[in-house]
Amino acid sequence: MALHARLLHDLAEIQKHPYPNIKLVPHEHEIRTACLVLTPMGQDPLHFTITFQNNYPLKAPSVRIDSSVHHPNIFGGYICASILNTRDGWTPAYTVKGIAIQLLSFFSSDNLEQDHGGVQNLNRYRLPDGRWQPDGGAFRCLNCLYSRSKPGNLALAMPSYSINLGDLLGLSNDPEPRASECQSTSGRGTELGVPLSHSTSTPPTNAAADEDYEVTPLSDMPAEILVRICDHLESEDLIAFARSWNRIGSARGIVTQFNLLRNRELQCFVLKKSFDELELGVGVQVTLRGRQGQITSEFDLLSAQAYNEHSIRRSVHGLPFRHHLPLAISRRHYQRVRERIQPRLAEIATEARLSTTLPSEVIVSFMSDIVVKLCDQARDASDPSALGRASERAIESYYHLFHLLLCQASEGPSIIRKVNSTLAGVLNGRTSKATIPNLGHLLISLPISDVPVTEKLLKTIVKEAITRNVVWMFDRQQGKGMSELAYLEANEVSPYRLQKTFEASKTSYTLLMFQNTFRQTINRGSGEKRKSVKQMRDQLFDAHGSPPKGTAARLARRIGQLQAINTFPHFINVMEIEMPTAAYFTTLLRGCVIESVKKGYSTWGISQGPALELRRQVDPNVQVRDVWPEETGRRPPPGPAQETSFFPSNRDGGNNNNNWGGLGHGRGRGRENRREGSPVSQQVSSRSLSAVRSGDEPSSQFGRPTPGQ
Question: Which of 371, 500, 392 is nearest to 439 (CA)?
Answer without folding.
Answer: 371
